[in-house]
Design brief:
CATH topology of the largest domain in chain C: Rossmann fold
Order of helices and strands of chain A: HHHHEEHHHHHHH
CATH class of chain A: Mainly Alpha
CATH architecture of chain A: Orthogonal Bundle
CATH architecture of the largest domain in chain C: 3-Layer(aba) Sandwich
Oligomer: heterotrimer
CATH superfamily of the largest domain in chain C: P-loop containing nucleotide triphosphate hydrolases
CATH topology of chain A: ABC transporter involved in vitamin B12 uptake, BtuC
Strand order of the largest sheet of chain C: 6-7-8-3-9-10
Largest sheet of chain C: 6 strands, mixed
Distance between the termini of chain C: 29 Å
Number of helices of chain A: 11
Radius of gyration of chain A: 19 Å
Shape of chain A: globular
Number of domains of chain A: 1
Distance between the termini of chain A: 45 Å
Structural class of chain C: alpha/beta
Number of domains of chain C: 2
Number of strands of chain A: 2
Strand order of the largest sheet of chain A: 1-2
Chains: A mainly alpha, B mainly alpha, C alpha/beta
Largest interface: A-B, 40 and 44 residues
Largest sheet of chain A: 2 strands, antiparallel
Radius of gyration of chain C: 18 Å
Bound molecules: adenosine-5'-diphosphate, magnesium ion
Number of helices of chain C: 9
Helix content of chain C: 25-40%
Amino acid sequence: MLFFQSLISGILIGGVYALAAMGMSLVFGVMNISNFAHGELMMLGMYMAYYLFTLLNIDPFLSLLIIMPLTFVFGYVIEKTMIDRVMDHPSENQILLTVGFGLIMSNSALLAFTSDPKILTTSYSSSSIALPGGISVSIPMLLSFLVTCILTAALYLFLAKSRTGMALRATSQNREAAQLMGINVSRMSAIAFGTGTLLAASAGAMIAQTYYIDPFAGHIFLLKSFTICVLGGLGSVIGAGIGGIIIGLAEAMSSAYLSSDWKDVLVFILFLAILLLRPQGLFGKKGEQ
Amino acid sequence: MKQSVVVIALFAAVMAALPGFLGDNPYIADILITILMMASLASAWNIVGGYAGQFSFGHAAYFGAGAYTTSILLTTLNPGIPVSIAAGVLVSCVIALLTGTIVFRLRGHYFALASIAVAEIVRLTVLNLDITGGAQGILVTKVSFGSLDLNSKVPFYYAMLFLLLVTLGISALIYRSRTGYYLLAIREDQDAAASLGINLYLFKNIALVISAAIASVAGSIYAVYISFIDTSTVLPLRLSIEIILTTIIGGIGTLWGPVLGAVLLVSLAEALRSNMIGEYLVNTGMVSEGSATGAFLKSNLAHAHVLVYGIITVLCILGLPKGILGFFRRKGEA
Amino acid sequence: MKKKLLEIISLSKHFGGNTAISNVSFNVEEGLIVGLIGPNGSGKTTLFNCITGYYSLTSGSVMFDGHDITRIKPDKACRIGMVRTWQRVKPLGNLNVLENVMIGAFSKTRSAGESRKIALAQLDLLGMSELSSNTAGDLPIGLKKKLELARALATSPKLLLLDEICGGLNNTETLELMETIRIIRNNGVSIVFIEHDMKAVTGLCDRIVVLKSEQKLVEGTPSDITGNHDVIAAYLGKGYKHA
Ligand SMILES: Nc1ncnc2c1ncn2[C@@H]1O[C@H](COP(=O)(O)OP(=O)(O)O)[C@@H](O)[C@H]1O
Ligand SMILES: [Mg+2]
C-alpha cells in the first residue's frame, strides 16, 4: 500500500514540478538562457495566491485567472527591459543577470513580507479523498494536478497549432533560420519568457496550500526545475513534462523507502548521473555537441 | 610579471602593518578579516571563473568542505591545525575532481548547473549526517596552535592575509604561464582552444582544483576563527553567489578585481547592516526621520544588503559587463 | 613515390538522416598542397571536422603519418602535427593578436618567453607584426583569417588544413597570401586547402580533389581538373575562363 500511496503522491507533486519545469524549458529552448530567477517567479505566484485569498477571498485555483495574465505581462516586460539586452552576451552574463534579478525579487519580498513563513489555508486545504486500501489523496494536490493537465494541454495546443506557437518552436529549433524566415525572434523571446513566468507563477500558486510561503520558497524548485529540464533534454517542453513526473515519483519513492532527509540528495545525484550518462536528456535527440 | 610581484609585495607590506595603526579594535579587525577572506575566495573563484570562464555556482561547497573537515578533525582526533587544513584541502580537491570529471566534458550551461547540484549535495549530506552535527553544527573549541593566542583576532588576520597573498601570487604566476594562456583561450573559444592543442578537460580541471583548494583553506581558517559552524554559515548557496558577485563587481579576469570587489562589497554590507547608511540619510536630512520613507529605510536597510547586491549585479551586467576594473583595464597588455 | 601523410579511407558522415559526406577517399602526400573544392554544402568543412575529431565519423577511417587517428580528439590532432583553421573564424576575441599566436606556440614549448619569440617570428613572416597588440576580436575579417593561419602555423604542424582562408581579402592580398602559403610548403609543411577562388586553387595546388553532392567527383592535377568536362559542368560553370 505504501507503494501505491507513494505512486499517487509522486505523480501529483510531479505534475506541479512538470509545470514549473516546462516554463523553464520553454525559455531555455527559445532563448537559450538558463533562468536562475525561475524559483523567484514561483515565489511570486505563491504570494499572489496568498494575498488574493486572504485579502479578496479568491480561491487559489480561481485566482489563476488573475495571476496568469499579470505574470505573463510581468515576464514580457522583464524580458524586454533587461534580458533582451544581453541576448548576444556570453551565457555567464545572462545567468548572472537572472541571478541578480532573482536576488532583487526575493529580497524585495523579504522587505515587503518579512521572512515569516505564511500559510494559505482554504476550507479544503487538509481534506483528502480516501481510496480503498487506506490510500489518501490530498484534494489540493489532486486539483493542482488536474489544473496542471489542463494547462499542459493548452500549452501543447498553443505550441502545436497556433501561429505564434509554431514561430516559437521554429525559433527554438534554429534561431538564425527563424529570423531569416521573417520571424520576429526578439518578440518570440519576450513571449517565451512571459509564458515561462506564467507557468512558474501558476505552479507556485497551486502549491501555495501545500508549502510554506516565504521569500526563498522558490529556491528548492529552481534546482528541481533544472534537474527536470536536464532529465527531459534541455529545451524540450514535453521532456520537461515527463521529467517532472519522474522526479516527483523518485522523490516520493525515496521518502517512502529510504528517508525523506535524503530525497533531495537523491534528486541531485540523479541529475549528475544524467549528465554523466546521457547529457542530451532522456528524450533529447542524440546529436553533435 | 615583475610588476605584479612589486605590487603584491607593496600590498603585503601595507596590509601587514595595518593592525599596528588600527590598534586592537575587534570590530574593525573582524571586518578586515572578512574582507581578506572574501578577497581570497573571490580570487580563487576568479582562476576558474575569470580565467577559464567556467562559472562555478557552488564554491561554498569547497569553503564548507574545508571548514567541516577541519572542524571535525580538530574536535575528534585533533591532529593539529596544519594537518586538519590539509585534510580539508584533500576533501575539497576530491569533490572538485568529481564535479569536473562529470561535467567538464560538456559545454554551455551544464557546469553552472552541476556546480550548484554538487554544492547542494554537499550541504544536504552535511545536514543529514551525524558526524557533522547535522543541523546543530559543530562547536570548534579548545583549539591551540603553538603559543598563539587564538582568542585574539590578530593571528586570523595574518592567516587570512597570508592566504590572500598566496592566492594572488598563484594567480599572477598562472596568468603569465602557459596554463594561464590556455585558460584564457578556453574562456574565449573552446573549439579554437582545442584546435590549438589544448586539452580542455585537463586544464579546466586544473583550474577548478587549484581554486577549490584555496577556498577550502579559507573555510578551515574561518571555522577556527568563529569557532562555530553550521550549514547556513559555511555552505549556503548565498555564499557561492556572493563570491561570484564580488569578482564580477570588482572586475572579473583581473588580478586585483576580486580584492577591490571584496573591499567594496564587505564595506557596503557592513554599512548597511550597522544601519550607517540609514542613519546617514536621516542625519544629513535627505529623508526626514518622521516620514514614512525615513522610518521604512531606518528599519529595513539593515536587511537590504543582498537586495543591494542584486541591484548592483543587474546594473553591472547591463552597464559594465567586465566589472569595474575590467572596464578600465588597458586592452592588449601582453 | 612520396610518403602518404594523411589517408582518408571511405569516410562517410551522416547527420541524422542527412548525408554530409559519402564514401570519400583520398591521400595527401608529404610536401604537397592539395586543393579541396566543391560547391557550398558539399561537405568540405565537415570533412575537416571529421578528420580533426570535432565530429565522429559514421564510417571509414583516417590515417596520419602511418597511425590510425579515426577517433582522435581535436587537441591530440594538433599535438601530433595536424592543425586546422576555421572558415567561420574563431579568434580568441578579448586577447590580442600576439597572445592568440602565443597560445598556438605553446604546443611546442612551456616557456612564455619562448612562445612569445615563436609568435613574433610567425607574425613577422605573415607581415602582421604591427598588429601584435591589437585586440583579435576587433580585426576586420580578412585579418582574422590571417590570424587563424598565424596561430595554426605557430603550432609547427606537419599538415595544415586551411578552410577558405582567403575570404575577405582583395586580389593583391590573395596573391600575397598564396605566396606565403607556397613558402610555408617549401618549409616542409603539407597543406590541404579549401577554397572557392578557382584561380588561387589552380595556381597553387599540386593536386585537386573535387567534392560534389557529398561525394568525390574527381581528383587530379590542376590541368586535369580544369580540363574535366564534369567539373566544368558541375562546379566551375560559366563563370570560369581557362587561364
Ligand atoms: N553540425 C551539423 N549538423 C547537421 N548538419 C550539418 C552539420 N554540419 C554540416 N552539416 C551539413 O553538412 C553539409 C555539408 O556542409 P559543409 O561541410 O559546411 O559544406 P561546405 O564546407 O562544403 O560548404 C551541409 O548540408 C550542412 O547542412
Ligand atoms: Mg565550408
